[in-house]
Specification:
Elements: H1 2-21, E1 36-38, E2 42-49, E3 55-62, E4 70-75, E5 80-83, E6 94-101, E7 107-117, E8 124-133, H2 154-161, H3 169-189
Parallel strand pairs: 2-8
Antiparallel strand pairs: 1-3, 3-6, 4-7, 5-6, 7-8
Length: 207
């Protein structure tokens, strides 16, 4: 009896091990599943000004035999926001994934957008990069702290006032001599009129 129970216990354990080892086979891929084929999966913004247009567009085509249904798309950070079509994209049809980057942020950037769908190549990762340039700053003239003019130093004013003015006697004498010479020349040049008086003599003859 004991041997029978032992045999049954071993059989049950072996059956449980085989049952645990058995794995469910993965479903075969759908040969008609659609494929998202992008014209390009990376966009370089280049160097742009702050607050410039941050919108870019990724274009793709459904190269499969069934419609593409996008379930979700998200950016790598809050500054990158994608917009995707909510309706199915039919076989052979083109559609767009729009991406907006916040260009108020200054400096280089490299971000990604992940798109999930029922396509064979899902998820698809799209990338954007570039550099946002800060605006040039114009220096402003500094305003004076007070509008009251600063008085001139009193020491300099006193020095100028207390300086005596000395007149040179030699200069005064020279000036007087020049004036006298000028008067003398003026007098010498004046024309002298000579007056000639003719006296007629009358002779009386007495008879």
């Amino acid at each position: 009896m004991k041997k029978l129970l032992l045999s049954m216990t071993m059989f049950a354990g072996t059956f449980g091990v085989f049952a645990q080892d058995g794995t469910t086979p993965a479903p075969a891929p759908d040969p008609n599943a659609p494929t998202m084929t992008f014209a390009k999966d990376a966009i370089d913004y280049g160097t742009i000004k702050q607050d410039a247009d941050g919108n870019r567009v990724f274009t793709f085509t459904n190269d499969g035999k069934t419609p593409i249904v996008i379930s979700e798309a998200h950016g790598s950070c809050g500054c990158t926001v994608p917009t995707y079509p909510k309706e199915p994209i039919m076989p052979g049809q083109k559609a767009e994934i729009k991406v907006h980057y916040d260009t108020h942020r200054v400096g280089p950037f490299s971000k990604s957008v992940t798109v999930n769908s029922n396509a064979k190549n899902s998820p698809v990762v799209l990338r954007i990069s570039g550099t946002v340039e800060a605006p040039a700053t114009v220096p402003t003239a500094s305003e004076p702290s007070t509008i009251i003019p600063t008085p001139a130093p009193t020491t300099a004013a006193a020095t100028v006032t207390s300086t005596p003015v000395v007149k040179s006697k030699t200069t005064a004498s020279t000036t007087t001599a020049k004036k006298t010479t000028t008067k003398a020349k003026t007098t010498a040049k004046a024309p002298v009129k000579k007056t000639t008086t003719t006296t007629k003599k009358t002779t009386t003859v007495k008879k």
